[in-house]
Structure formats: C-alpha cells, structure tokens
TrEMBL record:
One of its GO terms (molecular function) is ATP hydrolysis activity. This is ABC transporter ATP-binding protein. InterPro entries: AAA+_ATPase, ABC_transporter-like_ATP-bd, ABC_transporter-like_CS, ABC_transporter_ATP-binding, P-loop_NTPase. It comes from the Bacteria.
Length: 310
C-alpha cells in the first residue's frame, strides 16, 4: 500500500516470562486517516503501540514509519511519532508553555515559539500558557499531553484512551480536537474503550484480540457488512408469549411484551418482512407502530470477540 505511513509486518512480541503479547501482527496505517484500535483488556493494544513507538523491542518482525525502520533508524522513525499516554504524568509546578517547549527540545528540535503558540491555540491552551499544570482541570491536562506530543511536529499521533475518566462534555470537546488534528493532516491511531468514540471518529476500525489482528476495515463498510437491521413492532396489546405459529420468524418479546423484535440481514434479497406481516395478521395481532434499528459498532465488536473466543 503506497499511502501507508506506518507499516507493521509479522510483528511478534514474547516477554521473558513466556507471555506472547503479539502474534505475527501485520498492519498498514494510511497517511491522514483516523484508525481506531479496539480490543478487550489484555488484547495487545498497548504492546502494539509501544512497539511502534519504540518503547518495546519486538521479538521478530518489522515496523517502519515514513519508510524508517524503528530499530535500524530509530531516531528518524521516532521523530515522526507523537504519543499521548493514558496516564496523566505532568510536572505539577511547571508552566504549560514551558512543558511543551521542553518536550520539543527532547527531540532535538530548535526552539520555535511560533509552532508552540500554534499548538497551544489549536488546543485552546494559549490562555493557560503561564498556568502551572497542577492548577488545570483533568480535561485541560489531557490537552497538555496532546500539546507535548505535537510539540516536535510529528506526522503520526497515537492516542491511548484519550478520554478515559473525563465527563461527556469534555469527551466531545476532545473529539472536536481530534477532528481538527486530522484536518491538519495528522495521522491518528486511537485506542479506546468507548466504542461510540470509534464509531464517531474513525475512518477504519481495527480489532485486536489475543495478540492478533482480527480485522481492519473501513468503518462504514464493516457496519454495512456485519450490521443487522431490526424491525421493532409495537403492539396495541401486550403479549405474554409469542404464538407458536410465529416461531419460524425468530421473534423476541421486548418492552415488557409491548413489542416484537425481528432481526434480518439487510443485504439479503428477501428480508421475510412481508411474510411476517401476513402471519401477524393471521394471529390477529394488532400493531400500533413499526420502526427499524441498525446494529451499532459496539454490538458488532462484541459479536466478533465472542465468536473468536468460542
């Protein structure tokens, strides 16, 4: 793939104790995309990010960033990457602007106050530039972490659980920040436990479990391919049980017996809805309303992980 800025090939990581955290992982990350990496606890997400960022040495396999091998050309590869860790670890008595300037200097970049100002303004931190980090809210501290990661002008940004523990309003502010960074051309890899976050932000979804990449697919294509539609039939009178003649339709009772739910494959040529309606009428079941619902990404993810564990 010619537009891949990060290329992971057959990456394996086995720790000294014998635990294999990554098993022959291959993954191409495209320039300018947002890739959401989903997986249960212990799936290998953090190990994969740590390996790409040069914090963990792979047991085998290769990783290149912008064409630079992370082992043979570590400095060049690492300079292209910004990492925002899940844990907030800031020097409490340091000013925001000093913290960001220092991070830039760690990568050997010359002082560039224009760039630092631009980053702080992008993240709504400019007015807080002379504030000690200990005086900031949790959401503002996370913005400082992002500013630190962007201080050396990376082309790839890893966000490890960027909205963990923040309230809904701050989470949505952070989503806006991520979209703005993408608009500036930054490639973003996002790990999250909030699947709605992946559904909202990602161009592609990667699912990892047991140290293996199970799939990487365009979000919309995945939801179309694996999503199911549900027909929710609201009833004029509640049912205690589903009549036996309706059993072939695989219906389930919902809403305290006030609704029937019919699940079908929206890509199939025949949905079976017409036959269902005929059979409902034959059972003298009166309807008050009918609506459709589609599978969420969370339902697809849970289903995939459950199938893999079976």
């Amino acid at each position: 793939m010619s537009d891949a800025i990060v290329r992971v090939s057959d990456l394996t990581k086995t720790y000294a104790g014998g635990l294999t955290a990554l098993r022959s992982v291959s993954l191409d990350i495209r320039q300018g995309e947002i890739l959401a990496l989903l997986g249960p606890n212990g799936a290998g997400k953090t190990t994969l990010i740590s390996a790409i960022c040069g914090l963990v040495t792979p047991s085998s396999g290769t990783v290149t960033i912008g064409g630079h091998d992370i082992l043979r050309d570590y400095r060049a590869a690492r300079s292209l990457v910004g990492l925002v860790p899940q844990e907030i670890n800031l020097e409490p008595f340091e000013k925001v602007i000093t913290t960001v300037r220092f991070s830039r200097g760690l990568f050997g970049k010359p002082q560039n106050d224009d760039h630092v100002e631009r980053v702080l303004r992008q993240l709504s931190l400019w007015d807080k530039r002379d504030t000690q980090t200990k005086e900031l809210s949790g959401g503002m501290k996370r913005r400082v972490l992002i500013a630190k990661a962007l201080s050396h002008e990376p082309r790839v940004l890893f966000l490890d659980e960027p909205t963990a523990g923040v309230d809904v309003e701050l989470r949505r502010d952070m989503w806006d920040t991520v979209r703005e960074l993408k608009a500036l051309g930054v490639t973003i890899i996002l790990t999250t436990h909030y699947i709605e976050e992946a559904e909202e932000l990602a161009d592609r979804i990667g699912i990892i479990a047991d140290g293996e990449i199970k799939l990487v697919e365009d979000k919309r294509a995945l939801m179309h391919r694996m999503g199911q539609k549900r027909l929710v039939i609201e009833l004029s009178e509640p049912l205690d049980t589903i009549p036996e003649p309706l059993a072939p339709h695989g219906l389930r009772l919902a809403e305290g017996g006030h609704a029937l739910v019919y699940t079908y494959d929206k890509t199939a040529g025949r949905t079976g809805i017409r036959r269902l309606m005929v059979d409902l009428e034959a059972q003298d079941i009166a309807l008050s309303d009918v609506r459709t619902e589609e599978s969420t990404l969370e339902e697809i993810f849970v289903d995939l992980v459950r199938k893999d564990a079976a």
